[in-house]
Amino acid sequence: MADIKEKSTGNFTEKRLESQNSRSDESLDLNVKLANPLRQWTREDLIARAKAFAVKCEREDLQEEFAKGAIAAAYPNSYEMEPAFTEEDKESLRREKTHRWHQPKTLYYMVILCSLAAAVQGMDQSVINGANLFFPSQFGIPQGQGSERNEWLHGIINSVPYFSSALLASWTTAPLNKYFGRRGTIFITCGIACVTCIWSALTDSWWHLMIARIALGFGIGPKSATVPVYAAECTPAAIRGGLVMQWQLWTAFGIMMGYVADLAFYYVPDQGGIVGLNWRLMLGSAAIPPLFVMAQVFFCPESPRWYVSKGKYRQAYDSMLRMRNTPLLAARDLYLAHEILQAEEEVNSNIRRSKLVEMITVPRNRKGMLGSGIVMFMQQFCGINVMAYYSSSIFQSAGATPFTALAASLGWGACNWLFGFPAVKTIDIFGRRQLLLIGFPLMSLALWFTGASFNIPEGSTARIACIALGTYLHCIFYSPSEGPVPFTYSAESFPLYIRDIGMSYAVSVCWFFNGVLSLTWPPLERAFTTQGAFYYYATWNLIGWALVFWLLPETKGLTLEELDTVFSVSNKDHIAYQTKHIPYYIQKYFFRRKGLEREPLYPHEKLSLEERQKMGTAVPQAAGH
């Protein structure tokens, strides 16, 4: 094949470069550079840099492939006009859009790993639900006897893994990833989860159980921060949401399996002098899933972007190649990841502060903190984990027997898992923001219905049925919206150079407020009544809707690098834009008007608009609905 350097893309590329070079808006230039640093180079320089990178990767034989990959990454909409690309090259780029889910088996194997790690997380969360029916009495802190001390101790034992995770364990994510990689961190944390679940089953007092559950936080926090980032760094942009959200989907599966264990061991009698064998088996059963993860984690490829950050370019390419359909796609994605890392280092070279300080002081990073903080906070204050931890107690207070309450909890867990499946596709079709704007009002209505159901006279079958229905509906509306979005969104919110510490922050927000919810539910029930407590969380869902509408940008369909432009738009501009377009939303979604268009909001959309106009193609609708 002739050297690609001699090829030409025609007037379109030359004019585009002239247009870029003539820009006077420095902030837009910075956003463009961060979104796609390849556009700052001339065609000849870009090709030379790509070939030099191929040498770095110890793949001199693929210099032409890397050069084509660089052009495909720099001008993603113009590959059909590239004479340097063979028909096979063009077909691979077309199929990436038309057959999004046709990916190598290794990529899906990595997703299975993430799914099992998430199931570990979910089971850790729910086995305590069944144990709550037994260990308080055995350890001298019985429920329902009007003791405020017992209420708080019960809440602390339930919540302490999440406070431990938020305040301590999650902040070990960055050093663990730095020294052990994504796979190593997953292996270590699953080992901790396995040991601490067995430890919890062997405790002989409430304070001993509390210490074991504090240690469990170190098996929860770093894992929940690492797995979504690992998935986000390995998956193509077009299906990133659907694959990263597997974390939440299979967390829900783990929660459901926790209820299965609760029911399976409910009637196990004490044997061999062991008191409370049933709840001990419930807690200990959560040690089984992490063993499967530990057995297969190192058969999966390491994150290519992690290898790039360590300068291990050969390993990075080999890893990326295992998860892409063609060498061209692997070269394109790896080279773009390399250049964006170089650009980030250049942009931040004059900032002599810690990464934690940069995360707070740099506006783009601060916007990522706000977005991830909103979705993580609302994942808890939408009220979902009230049912995950206390459903058996809630159903008992509605009039169900203990075993029936656990059976109803299993039904809730099944809804939580099954109704997450639609989000696998909808999260990348409708987008993260759209799913939240639909989900929050529906969750609020479900909780209002649940609270109102407590007005039905006690002892009535209708009372139990309506309370169960309300909680099931709340779960059904949560599972494809606020369920999968937070971890997916947070994994997309931070640039590579602070992604580990940014995800640590996001996960710490999630687990801290998870702990707050778990700790405060018993006294909240006493202060507000169970009915009032459901109304309380129904109101928070409406607050969540407002926060998403005015403050949360959309991230669907963009590469991790292009997201820099999205998070560079100020909150002031975002609020003004969304407020201005309220009539547009009313016309489109309430009156079903078609053919409506909006001006683009983000810099990368404006560039895309210019490119498509020059290419004579249709202008896409702006993101950020």
Describe the protein's architecture and organization:
The chain is mainly α and 625 residues long. It has 2 domains: 105-551, MFS general substrate transporter like domains (Growth Hormone, Chain: A, Up-down Bundle), CATH 1.20.1250.20; 581-625, no CATH class. It is 72% helix and 0% strand. It has helices spanning 11-21, 26-35, 43-56, 63-74, 87-98, 105-131, 135-138, 148-167, 173-201, 206-234, 240-244, 246-264, 277-285, 288-296, 304-309, 313-322, 327-347, 355-361, 363-381, 384-397, 402-418, 423-429, 432-453, 461-478, 485-492, 499-551, 563-566, 571-580, 582-590, 603-615. α10 (206-234) packs across α26. The two termini are 45 Å apart. The model is unreliable at 1-32 and 615-625 (pLDDT under 50). This is Major facilitator superfamily (MFS) profile domain-containing protein. Belongs to the major facilitator superfamily. Sugar transporter (TC 2.A.1.1) family. Keywords: Membrane, Transmembrane, Transmembrane helix, Transport.
Oligomeric composition of the shown chains: single chain
Shape type: globular
Largest sheet: none
Mean pLDDT comes to 83
What are the low-pLDDT stretches, counting only 5+ consecutive residues below 50? 1-32, 615-625
CATH class of the largest domain: Mainly Alpha
Q: What order do the SSEs take from the amino end to the carboxyl end, as H and E?
A: HHHHHHHHHHHHHHHHHHHHHHHHHHHHHH
Radius of gyration, in angstroms, nearest whole number:
26 Å
Question: In what range is the share of β-strand residues?
Answer: under 5%
The name of the CATH architecture of the largest domain is Up-down Bundle
The N- and C-terminal alpha carbons lie at a distance of 45 Å
Q: How many separate helices?
A: 30
The CATH fourth-level homologous superfamily of the largest domain: MFS general substrate transporter like domains
Domain module count = 2
Class of secondary structure makeup: mainly alpha
Q: Total strand count, please?
A: 0
Annotated CATH topology of the largest domain: Growth Hormone, Chain: A
Question: What portion of residues is helical?
Answer: over 70%
